[in-house]
Structure formats: structure tokens, C-alpha cells
Amino acid sequence: MTILLILGTTILALVVWTAFSISRNYQAARRIGLPIVISPVSTLNPLWILLWRGFPAILRLKHLPFGLGTWARCTSMGWAFQDKHKLHDELGPLFTLVTPAANEVTVADPEAAHAVLARRKDYIKPAVMY
Fold first, then answer.
1. Three-state DSSP class for 1?
2. Pick the residue with more confidence: 71 or 67?
3. Angle value at C-alpha 89, between 88 and 90, nearest 5 degrees
């Protein structure tokens, strides 16, 4: 009984933390003004990196109506190579991926990419990405 209570409390805390973090990051992403994709998992979450291939049902989420499964298309490692330019054709050359960990802006416009890379001190890449 105690183990069930601990497990249930842990799961509830994880769900509440995820919802709170997504809400906070969503508010910040709205201020950017780019199209938004909301994901319940971070692309750099070590557990997600190890386990995402084991969830074939998640891969089927890509086909949900109203774009509800869009997050499943862009949260796996190397998603841009698999998806090619399809997501950018739908959302535009720039969009923001809102995750519990952080907001990620994805750029497919050469001029915008050049502007970001030319001002790398203004757009600091997190150390965990190196």
C-alpha cells in the first residue's frame, strides 16, 4: 500500500511539474510571436532519448487531427532529417517548440540562421547541447 502511495504521488508530482513548466514556457513563447508546438517531453531529456523508439504508439500520434500530434514529429533525435521540410511547410520558416525544460526555436530560413550564427554571443547555446 505504501509503495502504491509513493508511486502515485511521484507520478502526480511529475504531471503537475510538467504542466506548470509547459504553462510557464508557453507564456514566454507567446511573447516571441512565432508559431508554437507544445510537447510534453523535452528533446534533450535523457530518458526520452533512450526510450522514444520503444513507443510505436507515439509515432502514430503524428496523424491526429488539428495538429495535436505535431509534437511527436519533432521530439526525436534527428527529426529534421526524417521530416525534411514538411513541418516548416506547415508552420513557416521559424517555430517554437515548447517543452517542460525549455523553449527551442527551430530555424529553416537562411537569412535568419545567418543572423543567429553571426551574433552567437546574443544567442547562447546551452552547454548540454555540446
1. coil
2. 71
3. 85
Residue of 130, 47, 19, 83 whose CA lies nearest to 106: 83
Q: How far apart are CA 30 and CA 45, in angstroms?
A: 23
**Angle value at C-alpha 103, between 89 and 80, nearest 5 degrees:** 35
Q: Name the one residue in this structure whose C-alpha cell is 526520452.
A: 48
Q: How large a percentage of the chain has pLDDT more than 70?
A: 90
Angle ∠(125,79,19) on CA atoms, nearest 5: 70
pLDDT greater than 70 at residue 58: no
Assess contact for 64 and 38: CB atoms under 8 A: no
Question: Exposure of 47 by Cβ count < 10 A (0-12 exposed, 13-18 middle, 19+ buried)?
Answer: exposed
